[in-house]
Amino acid sequence: MKKYVGKRFLTAVPVLLMITIGAFIMINLAPGEPTDLYITPDATVQQVEATRRALGLDQPYPVQYIRWLGRAVTGDLGISFSTRYPVLPIIISRLGPTIVLMGTTLLFSYIVAIPLGIISARKQGTWVDTFLTGSAFVGVSIPNFFLGLGLIYIFAVQLNWFPTGGMQELGVDGSIFSVLRHLVLPVIVLSAFYIANMTRYMRATMIQVYGENYIRTATAKGLAQKVILTKHGIRNALIPVITIVGTDLPRLVGGAIVTEQIFQWPGLGRLTITAIQQRDLPILMAITILSAFVVLLANIFVDVMYAVVDPRIKYD
Amino acid sequence: MEETTVLEVKDLAISFQTFEGVVKAVRGVEFMLKKGETLAIVGESGSGKSVSTKAINRLLPEKNTLIERGEVLFEGQDLLKLSEKDMQGIRGNDIAMIFQDPMTSLNPTMTVGKQIAEPIIAHKNVSKEEAKEKALELMDLVGIHHPKKSYKNYPHQFSGGMRQRVMIAIALACEPKILIADEPTTALDVTIQAQILDLMNKLKDELDTSIIFITHDLGVVAQMADRVAVMYAGQIVEIGTADEIFYNPMHPYTWGLLASMPTLDVDQKNLYTIPGSPPNLLHPPVGDAFAARNDYALAIDFQQEPEVFKVTDTHYAKTWLLHPDAPDVTPPLKVVRRKEKYEALFSVKMYANSTGGGINGG
Ligand SMILES: Nc1ncnc2c1ncn2[C@@H]1O[C@H](COP(=O)(O)OP(=O)(O)OP(=O)(O)O)[C@@H](O)[C@H]1O
Ligand SMILES: [Mg+2]
């Protein structure tokens, strides 16, 4: 197993390289230049040139990329164009809030969705099932920004139960309680899709598992419904559900961008938006590698989990 | 010889709600099972063998199953009237089942040992260690090699035949009074099939369990059964001892089944097949359901359902041919030959009977 995971990381290296090249090309293809933002309208041609040279933008693209790569492998991700601070500390400072938001979202989503899916499947065809399936349909269809703005309007502006945004009260050092209060709305918005999606998937898998012959065997043994569900149903239903976890993780990276923007959450998502607006190439490259890495980790995690849950799967 | 009845199925009728309409899958099935005997149920695909026997253990899907009438009497109580909770105490404990597909009937994510120990823990008042001990004994009993090592193995590490042995161990775990085996060897190749049948016969004698054995294969019936019930279109059309069904069959459908049975002395290519196909049970036909495929059908077969006629105390058939007014017909040649053999056999038995013993039942 260790050997397998090691191999997976090694084979991922060329993929990560290709992704950085792709990202580099796309960022440079976008119209506009970093220098547009850092110089005053009355700057002379010489001043613009000097800025470009200072940022290394006077070099041909391949040279720029190689230089970036050369430094990146040593752990130096460069200096942010817009703030002139090193990229790494910026990313790290934004990582915490994003991990808190994403972690809470996934945990919350699965804790809610897996039981809902099971209930929906076991009550198939009843009004409970119809209600849950209907809600799940709404949940996967509703756009994040719409739900976010709606919730802010109702619960923050009208009822004043939760703050409209941010991660803690200004000027106050964030207590856990304050952070939790700020987390509620963004987590609900981000979770909507994952809860809905996982509920639907769990329901379908559970229905399928209950049609399997080994459930019939378990019933014929005279086991109680509860035992059949916990010992025979859920374990087997989790195998295909792991796949969904594998696609949820990377998707969350994208989902967080919009949600963090709406809720002024000081995480990587908002950093991404500002970096795009400012053509802050070193920041964008760093975020790209990080995202690619998350996807890679998610994939390896999923494969390892398969082996943990399903005794038929062995890697060596 | 004292013979006690362990199970009695009375006038059982079951239908299913489907998109096309109501399928009348079982239409008045009646039989009884005696202690220690093997009753085989034979009949074409879709004749209602699985449905009638699943109904005994209440394993039919609750959603679309309608038990229209009937009783399943086990130890004086009607199983069809029990609460789900009480039924759980009977399933796997008093009445156990083995199914056709050993490859898919075991939980792939649980060790086989645990799967065997599970019903013991559920029904018997024993500790986990005692259940494990008993499971290891069972594994040895059904011929699984190295029980200690195999206990921790998962089903995918076993062959089909070995998995069916595991299924048998599960079924026998609580020493049930009745074992229902629904085509337990159909999915296995011939040598493995013979081994499993031998095992079942051996265990039946050891544990004195009554068996209901469902199969398509009359060869298997001859090897296993004390009595045979022949099902057609949701009804038992003939029931009797194995000798009576094989050597003195009365129903034209049984004649057809026997004539289509491959034997060593018959050219396989010229094997008889019953013409046509079974009726659609969405709309069961008027009269005898077999009439349309029956070379021996009488006019009345198309108008009125036959009564059940008694041939002997143990032998009954549902055909108008047994009515006193019915014309004499000659069964197919193969069946006539069997009857001749039987008569020779029967005279020997008569002699045996007069010196003691007897064939009882109903
Ligand atoms: N859950 C169900 N819903 C609807 N119809 C069903 C259901 N189960 C069985 N049937 C129908 O009931 C009839 C009898 O089925 P059954 O499974 O008892 O046949 P069988 O004699 O066991 O056949 P086979 O030899 O193929 O196993 C068939 O027509 C079948 O389609
Ligand atoms: Mg069947």
From TrEMBL, chain A:
Gene3D superfamilies in UniProt: MetI-like
CDD domains for the chain: TM_PBP2
GO BP terms in the entry: transmembrane transport
UniProt KW keywords: Cell membrane, Membrane, Transmembrane, Transmembrane helix, Transport
GO CC annotations, alphabetized: plasma membrane
Residue ranges of every copy of the ABC transmembrane type-1 domain listed in the record: 95-302
Chain ranges passing through the membrane: 9-30, 99-119, 131-156, 176-196, 283-309
Membrane topology, from the record: Multi-pass membrane protein
Top-level taxon in the UniProt lineage: Bacteria
Main location (coarse class): membrane
Keyword Acetylation part of the UniProt annotation: no
Localisation per UniProt entry: Cell membrane
One Pfam assignment: BPD_transp_1_N
Protein family per UniProt: Belongs to the binding-protein-dependent transport system permease family.
Protein's UniProt name: Oligopeptide transport system permease protein AppB
Lineage: Bacteria, Bacillati, Bacillota, Bacilli, Lactobacillales
UniProtKB/TrEMBL annotation, chain B:
Keyword presence, ATP-binding: yes
Gene3D superfamilies per record: P-loop containing nucleotide triphosphate hydrolases
Keywords: ATP-binding, Cell membrane, Membrane, Nucleotide-binding, Transport
Domain of life: Bacteria
Entry protein name: ABC transporter ATP-binding protein
Principal location listed in the UniProt entry: membrane
Pfam families (UniProt xref): ABC_tran, oligo_HPY
SUPFAM superfamilies named in the record: P-loop containing nucleoside triphosphate hydrolases (SSF52540)
GO CC list: plasma membrane
Molecular function terms from GO: ATP binding; ATP hydrolysis activity
Membrane topology: Peripheral membrane protein
Stretches assigned to the ABC transporter domain: 7-258
Family indicated by similarity: Belongs to the ABC transporter superfamily.
A GO BP annotation: peptide transport
Family annotation (PROSITE patterns): ABC_TRANSPORTER_1, ABC_TRANSPORTER_2
InterPro entries noted in UniProt: AAA+_ATPase (IPR003593), ABC_Ni/Peptide_Import (IPR050388), ABC_transporter-like_ATP-bd (IPR003439), ABC_transporter-like_CS (IPR017871), Oligopep_ABC_C (IPR013563), P-loop_NTPase (IPR027417)
Record organism: Alkalibacterium putridalgicola
Compartment list: Cell membrane
